[in-house]
Amino acid sequence: MSAALEVRGVGKNYGPLHVLREVDFTVGTGEIFAVIGPNGAGKTTLFRVLTGEAASNGGSVRLHGEDITRLTVAERVHRGVGRTFQVARIFPEFTALQNVAVAIEARRRFPGQPRARHWNWRPDPAVVAEARAQLDDLGLSSRTEVQARLLSHGDRKRLEFALMLSLRPSILMLDEPMAGTAADDRQTMAELILKVRRERQVTVVMTEHDMDVVFSLADRVMVLNYGQVIAVGEPQAVRRDDKVREVYLGREASHA
Amino acid sequence: MKARLRRLAPPVFALLVLGVLASLPWWASSAVLYVAGLTLTAGLFALSWNLLFGYAGIASFGHAAFFSIGAYFTALALQHQWPLHFLVTLGAAALAGAVLACLLGALALTRLSGIHFAVLTLAVAEVVRALISASRTLGAEDGLSGLPRPDMAFGGWVLRLQSAAAYYLFLLAVCALAAAALWLLCHGRFGRVLNALRQDPDRTAFIGLDVRRYRIAAFTISGAVAALAGAVAAPWTQIVSPETAGWLHSAQPMLNTLLGGSGSFWGPLVGSVVNAVLTYSTRTLAGVSELVSGAILLVVILIAPSGIVGALSRRSSRPVAGERTAAAPTSAAAIEGGPA
């Protein structure tokens, strides 16, 4: 299995506050890799560094062997990085269909794409058809004409997923895909992640608070605490790790 | 059949408005004609501002800087009779506005956003005003007056624009063409991207679009159109003064846009017309005319926060057709008479 993502010695500090220290890990192609840790462990910061939203202080990030440490968000997206947020980020005034269509139009102009007509007066019918198919695929076909701000929380999450998938990413960065969703939606989202991985051979890096989800979905789990990696491995091994039990699962268990 | 009527209504309406405006020199008084000309340039100025505000979500408090650059450039060219075709003068004026906007955008739009950027533009406009006031060449505080209107030669044929009627028609043509160009821009892919950018810049970056580049592009185009509005306005008023760059003048496109509605492409034009009608019809109320027109503006903005066009389109709006990827402005524009 070749490496999709290689992170070496990544640090991030805000003044004297070290949010990430010397973070090292490798994610294999096609793997589902979960990053967990208590609140404030640095999961979101790590995500921001990996996607280019925040610059790291030292260290390097390689995507499919290419150094992307200094690239902007858009440049990383061109190279296959897709991302969802804890609270779905979509275009609220656009309809679901317009949301996906604008993403497809953007994708058709990524560097290296066959040049689409420069002056796209109305969205190409092919774009609209593809957007419909994408929404269908995620079970949103009855929502195509609904303004995104009027969608339910679960539908927004799925629309955001559709937006991301329409860019044909090779690595999905999912920041708490289950956050704030109902039990039914969790099941649907988990099945969706597995289905996408199966059909598109994508790599998934996710953070998640729901441990049931993490341990049922992830191939490997990494635990962060105070910005440091304290364990990486298969779910069962991580579950048994003493340090992990102490700082994280121990606390979870005592709550349960 | 009904759908077809709805589709045809906007262009027919636009042609009607254009026709009425073009017929003004034959029946309106010279005062009305003068106000109409001012309103056209104010409308174009407001459209340029709303490309930033209503589409890209960037506020500029100093847009008069660009207007004044265009106005002074044309004024100099006409007064000193630079050997430039007038169309070239207009193009160069727009280019000057574009260059300033592009520089300002490249320097500041990455680091600053929202209110900070808006205040920066205000400061830049004040600097422009101060520079004009200090420059003898530009007439200092007195400005440049008695500007001659141009002739335009096309091969052996010369278009004379000295008379108010002739220049007015030229002004109308330039403003209509510029507005049409902006309309095309806003309703094509570029407009869709700006729309997305306003709604969520982070998501826009995550669909792989260079947010900074689009912001700078929008600012550059807006600066160019504002300068063009100034450039065609100068020969109309035949005088330019430092107040052209003043903050009161910068407030004008904002007021017109908010009055007409920033969510619609045509809102700023409608606002400019309503504002002009208000100002003109209260002009005889000595001393209180500003008070009366100000109060009316206040009332409109209070009862219709989305502007006149916004209020009208909410009354008659329908679900937007799916294939349209332009946002709210489209539906409003369709009702207010944009050529579809």
Layout of secondary structure:
The complex is a heterodimer of chains A (256) and B (340).
Chain A (H helix, E strand, L loop, with lengths): L2 E12 L2 E12 L3 E5 L6 H9 L8 E4 L2 E2 L5 H6 L2 E4 L11 H12 L17 H13 L15 H13 L5 E5 L7 H18 L2 E5 L3 H7 L2 E6 L2 E6 L1 H6 L1 H14 L1
Parallel strand pairs in A: 3-8, 3-9, 6-7, 7-8
Antiparallel strand pairs in A: 1-2, 1-4, 4-5, 9-10
Chain B lengths: L1 H26 L2 H27 L7 H16 L6 H23 L5 H21 L9 E2 L5 E4 L2 E4 L3 H24 L1 H11 L1 H6 L4 H27 L1 E2 L6 H14 L6 H15 L7 H15 L3 H10 L11 H9 L4
Antiparallel strand pairs in B: 1-4, 2-3
Helix pairs in contact in B: 1-6, 1-14, 2-6, 2-9, 2-10, 2-11, 3-4, 3-5, 3-9, 4-9, 6-9, 7-9, 10-11, 10-13, 13-14
Explain how this protein is built.
The complex is a heterodimer of chains A (about 260) and B (about 350). By secondary structure, chain A is of the alpha/beta class. Helix content of chain A is about 40%, strand content about 25%. Chain A has helices at about 45-50, 75-80, 95-105, 125-135, 155-165, 185-200, 210-215, 235-240, 240-255, and strands spanning about 5-15, 15-30, 30-35, 60-65, 65, 80-85, 170-175, 205, 220-225, 230-235. In chain A, strands 6-7-8-3-9-10 form a 6-stranded mixed β-sheet, with helices on both faces. A 4-stranded antiparallel β-sheet of chain A has the order 2-1-4-5, with helices on one face. Chain A is globular. Chain B is mainly alpha-helical and about 350 residues long. Chain B has 14 helices and 4 strands. In chain B, the strands form 2 sheets. Chain B has a two-stranded antiparallel ribbon with strand order 1-4. A two-stranded antiparallel ribbon of chain B has the order 2-3. Chain B starts with a helix and ends with a helix. At the A-B interface, helix 2 and helix 3 of A face helix 7 and helix 8 of B.
